[in-house]
Amino acid sequence: MAPILIIETSTEVCSVALINEGKLIDLTESREGQNHARLVTVFTQDLLSRNNIKPAELAAVAISRGPGSYTGLRIGVSAAKGICYAARIPLIAVGTLEAMTKHIALNRDQLNIPEAKQTLFCPMIDARRMEVYSMLLDENGEVIKPITAEIIDESFLADELTENQVVFFGNGSEKCKKVITSPNAVFVSNINASAQHMCELVWQAYSNKQFEDVAYFEPYYLKDFVATVSKKNMLG
After folding, report:
1. What is the mean pLDDT of the chain?
2. Domain containing 170: what range?
Protein backbone atom coordinates (compact mmCIF):
# COMPACT_ATOMS: atom_id res chain seq x y z
CA MET A 1 0.00 0.00 0.00
CA ALA A 2 1.34 3.42 -0.99
CA PRO A 3 -1.16 6.05 0.19
CA ILE A 4 -0.56 9.62 -0.94
CA LEU A 5 -2.22 12.67 0.57
CA ILE A 6 -3.23 15.38 -1.91
CA ILE A 7 -3.91 19.00 -0.94
CA GLU A 8 -5.53 21.55 -3.27
CA THR A 9 -5.99 25.14 -2.05
CA SER A 10 -5.30 27.26 -5.14
CA THR A 11 -8.86 28.61 -5.50
CA GLU A 12 -11.94 29.07 -3.31
CA VAL A 13 -12.10 25.27 -2.93
CA CYS A 14 -10.25 23.69 0.00
CA SER A 15 -9.82 20.07 -1.02
CA VAL A 16 -7.94 17.14 0.52
CA ALA A 17 -7.85 13.63 -0.97
CA LEU A 18 -6.25 10.29 -0.30
CA ILE A 19 -5.17 7.96 -3.10
CA ASN A 20 -3.67 4.48 -3.17
CA GLU A 21 -1.88 3.15 -6.25
CA GLY A 22 -3.25 6.14 -8.14
CA LYS A 23 -6.89 5.47 -7.24
CA LEU A 24 -9.01 7.88 -5.19
CA ILE A 25 -10.05 6.31 -1.89
CA ASP A 26 -11.35 9.33 0.05
CA LEU A 27 -12.04 13.03 -0.39
CA THR A 28 -13.10 15.98 1.76
CA GLU A 29 -13.61 19.47 0.39
CA SER A 30 -15.37 22.76 0.96
CA ARG A 31 -16.25 25.56 -1.43
CA GLU A 32 -16.83 28.15 1.28
CA GLY A 33 -13.69 30.11 0.41
CA GLN A 34 -11.52 32.19 2.77
CA ASN A 35 -11.36 29.34 5.29
CA HIS A 36 -8.38 27.36 4.02
CA ALA A 37 -6.18 28.12 7.03
CA ARG A 38 -8.83 26.68 9.35
CA LEU A 39 -10.00 23.78 7.19
CA VAL A 40 -6.96 22.22 5.55
CA THR A 41 -5.47 20.83 8.78
CA VAL A 42 -8.86 19.61 10.05
CA PHE A 43 -9.63 17.94 6.71
CA THR A 44 -6.23 16.26 6.67
CA GLN A 45 -6.54 14.93 10.22
CA ASP A 46 -10.08 13.66 9.64
CA LEU A 47 -9.15 11.98 6.36
CA LEU A 48 -6.17 10.15 7.82
CA SER A 49 -8.06 9.20 10.99
CA ARG A 50 -11.04 7.61 9.26
CA ASN A 51 -8.72 5.63 6.99
CA ASN A 52 -6.52 4.51 9.90
CA ILE A 53 -3.40 6.00 8.35
CA LYS A 54 -0.66 7.74 10.29
CA PRO A 55 1.31 10.54 8.60
CA ALA A 56 4.47 8.41 8.74
CA GLU A 57 2.66 5.71 6.74
CA LEU A 58 2.09 8.04 3.78
CA ALA A 59 4.26 7.47 0.73
CA ALA A 60 4.21 11.20 -0.11
CA VAL A 61 2.22 14.42 0.11
CA ALA A 62 1.14 16.14 -3.10
CA ILE A 63 0.26 19.78 -3.51
CA SER A 64 -1.21 21.93 -6.25
CA ARG A 65 1.64 24.00 -7.70
CA GLY A 66 -0.56 26.86 -8.94
CA PRO A 67 -1.25 29.34 -10.37
CA GLY A 68 -4.04 30.60 -8.19
CA SER A 69 -4.70 32.47 -4.97
CA TYR A 70 -1.47 33.69 -3.37
CA THR A 71 -2.80 33.14 0.14
CA GLY A 72 -4.47 29.83 -0.68
CA LEU A 73 -1.33 28.40 -2.27
CA ARG A 74 0.84 29.43 0.68
CA ILE A 75 -1.54 27.80 3.15
CA GLY A 76 -1.63 24.52 1.23
CA VAL A 77 2.12 24.39 0.66
CA SER A 78 2.83 25.17 4.32
CA ALA A 79 0.56 22.33 5.44
CA ALA A 80 2.13 19.89 2.97
CA LYS A 81 5.68 20.85 3.94
CA GLY A 82 4.88 20.42 7.62
CA ILE A 83 3.73 16.85 7.09
CA CYS A 84 6.68 16.04 4.83
CA TYR A 85 9.20 17.38 7.36
CA ALA A 86 7.63 15.59 10.31
CA ALA A 87 7.12 12.26 8.53
CA ARG A 88 10.28 12.50 6.38
CA ILE A 89 8.40 11.75 3.20
CA PRO A 90 8.70 13.32 -0.29
CA LEU A 91 6.75 16.27 -1.64
CA ILE A 92 5.05 16.19 -5.06
CA ALA A 93 3.71 19.23 -6.92
CA VAL A 94 1.49 19.26 -10.02
CA GLY A 95 0.13 22.19 -12.00
CA THR A 96 -3.37 23.32 -11.12
CA LEU A 97 -4.39 23.97 -14.74
CA GLU A 98 -2.78 20.76 -16.00
CA ALA A 99 -4.65 18.68 -13.41
CA MET A 100 -7.99 20.21 -14.39
CA THR A 101 -7.24 19.51 -18.05
CA LYS A 102 -6.33 15.89 -17.34
CA HIS A 103 -9.70 15.44 -15.64
CA ILE A 104 -11.57 16.94 -18.58
CA ALA A 105 -9.66 14.91 -21.16
CA LEU A 106 -10.31 11.64 -19.32
CA ASN A 107 -14.03 12.35 -18.90
CA ARG A 108 -14.98 14.09 -22.14
CA ASP A 109 -17.73 11.56 -22.93
CA GLN A 110 -19.41 11.97 -19.53
CA LEU A 111 -19.13 15.74 -19.90
CA ASN A 112 -20.76 15.63 -23.34
CA ILE A 113 -17.89 17.34 -25.10
CA PRO A 114 -18.59 17.07 -28.85
CA GLU A 115 -16.30 15.03 -31.06
CA ALA A 116 -14.10 17.17 -33.29
CA LYS A 117 -11.21 16.71 -35.68
CA GLN A 118 -8.99 18.73 -33.38
CA THR A 119 -9.78 19.68 -29.78
CA LEU A 120 -7.77 22.00 -27.57
CA PHE A 121 -8.29 22.59 -23.85
CA CYS A 122 -8.20 25.97 -22.10
CA PRO A 123 -8.45 25.79 -18.29
CA MET A 124 -9.17 29.12 -16.61
CA ILE A 125 -8.74 30.25 -13.02
CA ASP A 126 -10.47 33.47 -12.03
CA ALA A 127 -8.06 36.31 -11.26
CA ARG A 128 -10.11 39.53 -11.12
CA ARG A 129 -12.44 41.51 -13.33
CA MET A 130 -11.97 40.05 -16.84
CA GLU A 131 -8.56 38.58 -16.07
CA VAL A 132 -7.88 34.85 -15.81
CA TYR A 133 -4.91 32.55 -15.40
CA SER A 134 -5.01 30.25 -18.39
CA MET A 135 -3.05 28.02 -20.73
CA LEU A 136 -3.79 25.97 -23.85
CA LEU A 137 -3.12 22.25 -24.20
CA ASP A 138 -3.84 19.60 -26.82
CA GLU A 139 -5.52 16.25 -26.26
CA ASN A 140 -2.22 14.64 -25.25
CA GLY A 141 -1.51 17.24 -22.59
CA GLU A 142 1.14 18.98 -24.67
CA VAL A 143 1.38 22.71 -24.00
CA ILE A 144 0.31 24.86 -26.97
CA LYS A 145 0.37 28.14 -25.06
CA PRO A 146 2.08 28.40 -21.65
CA ILE A 147 0.46 29.76 -18.51
CA THR A 148 -0.30 33.47 -18.64
CA ALA A 149 -2.49 36.05 -16.92
CA GLU A 150 -4.90 37.18 -19.65
CA ILE A 151 -7.46 39.94 -19.91
CA ILE A 152 -10.21 38.32 -21.95
CA ASP A 153 -11.66 40.11 -24.97
CA GLU A 154 -13.06 39.12 -28.38
CA SER A 155 -9.59 38.43 -29.78
CA PHE A 156 -8.65 35.82 -27.17
CA LEU A 157 -7.56 32.61 -28.98
CA ALA A 158 -9.23 33.90 -32.14
CA ASP A 159 -6.73 32.15 -34.42
CA GLU A 160 -6.96 28.85 -32.56
CA LEU A 161 -10.77 28.97 -32.59
CA THR A 162 -10.79 29.35 -36.37
CA GLU A 163 -9.45 25.84 -36.95
CA ASN A 164 -10.03 24.02 -33.65
CA GLN A 165 -12.68 23.23 -31.13
CA VAL A 166 -11.54 24.83 -27.87
CA VAL A 167 -12.98 23.61 -24.56
CA PHE A 168 -13.09 26.26 -21.81
CA PHE A 169 -13.55 25.30 -18.15
CA GLY A 170 -12.63 26.30 -14.63
CA ASN A 171 -13.97 28.99 -12.31
CA GLY A 172 -12.72 31.71 -14.66
CA SER A 173 -14.54 30.48 -17.73
CA GLU A 174 -18.08 31.49 -16.79
CA LYS A 175 -17.38 35.20 -17.06
CA CYS A 176 -15.91 34.69 -20.54
CA LYS A 177 -18.99 33.18 -22.18
CA LYS A 178 -20.40 36.50 -23.37
CA VAL A 179 -17.03 37.56 -24.79
CA ILE A 180 -15.88 34.37 -26.52
CA THR A 181 -18.67 33.78 -29.02
CA SER A 182 -17.03 31.52 -31.62
CA PRO A 183 -19.14 28.50 -32.63
CA ASN A 184 -16.02 26.40 -31.99
CA ALA A 185 -15.96 27.41 -28.31
CA VAL A 186 -17.31 24.80 -25.88
CA PHE A 187 -17.89 25.77 -22.24
CA VAL A 188 -18.04 23.08 -19.54
CA SER A 189 -19.62 24.31 -16.31
CA ASN A 190 -18.92 23.41 -12.68
CA ILE A 191 -15.33 22.29 -13.14
CA ASN A 192 -13.27 23.48 -10.19
CA ALA A 193 -9.76 22.84 -8.98
CA SER A 194 -10.01 19.75 -6.76
CA ALA A 195 -7.67 17.24 -5.16
CA GLN A 196 -9.61 14.44 -6.86
CA HIS A 197 -8.61 15.81 -10.28
CA MET A 198 -4.93 15.53 -9.40
CA CYS A 199 -4.83 11.75 -8.93
CA GLU A 200 -3.41 10.70 -12.29
CA LEU A 201 -0.70 13.35 -12.45
CA VAL A 202 0.29 12.80 -8.82
CA TRP A 203 0.63 9.05 -9.30
CA GLN A 204 2.63 9.59 -12.48
CA ALA A 205 5.00 11.92 -10.65
CA TYR A 206 5.36 9.49 -7.75
CA SER A 207 6.03 6.55 -10.06
CA ASN A 208 8.72 8.57 -11.83
CA LYS A 209 10.17 9.84 -8.53
CA GLN A 210 9.56 13.44 -9.53
CA PHE A 211 9.86 14.97 -6.07
CA GLU A 212 10.34 18.56 -4.95
CA ASP A 213 12.93 19.94 -2.56
CA VAL A 214 10.85 20.35 0.59
CA ALA A 215 13.05 23.14 1.93
CA TYR A 216 13.09 25.30 -1.18
CA PHE A 217 9.87 24.56 -3.05
CA GLU A 218 7.68 27.58 -3.74
CA PRO A 219 4.29 27.52 -5.51
CA TYR A 220 3.81 29.16 -8.88
CA TYR A 221 2.04 32.40 -8.01
CA LEU A 222 2.34 33.87 -11.53
CA LYS A 223 1.77 37.34 -10.09
CA ASP A 224 3.15 38.93 -6.94
CA PHE A 225 0.86 39.38 -3.98
CA VAL A 226 -0.65 42.85 -3.82
CA ALA A 227 -1.97 43.98 -0.45
CA THR A 228 -4.77 46.52 -0.57
CA VAL A 229 -5.61 49.07 2.11
CA SER A 230 -9.16 50.17 2.70
CA LYS A 231 -9.68 53.87 2.10
CA LYS A 232 -11.64 53.96 5.34
CA ASN A 233 -8.43 53.17 7.23
CA MET A 234 -6.25 55.72 5.47
CA LEU A 235 -5.23 58.85 7.29
CA GLY A 236 -6.13 62.00 5.45
Report:
1. 91
2. 98-188
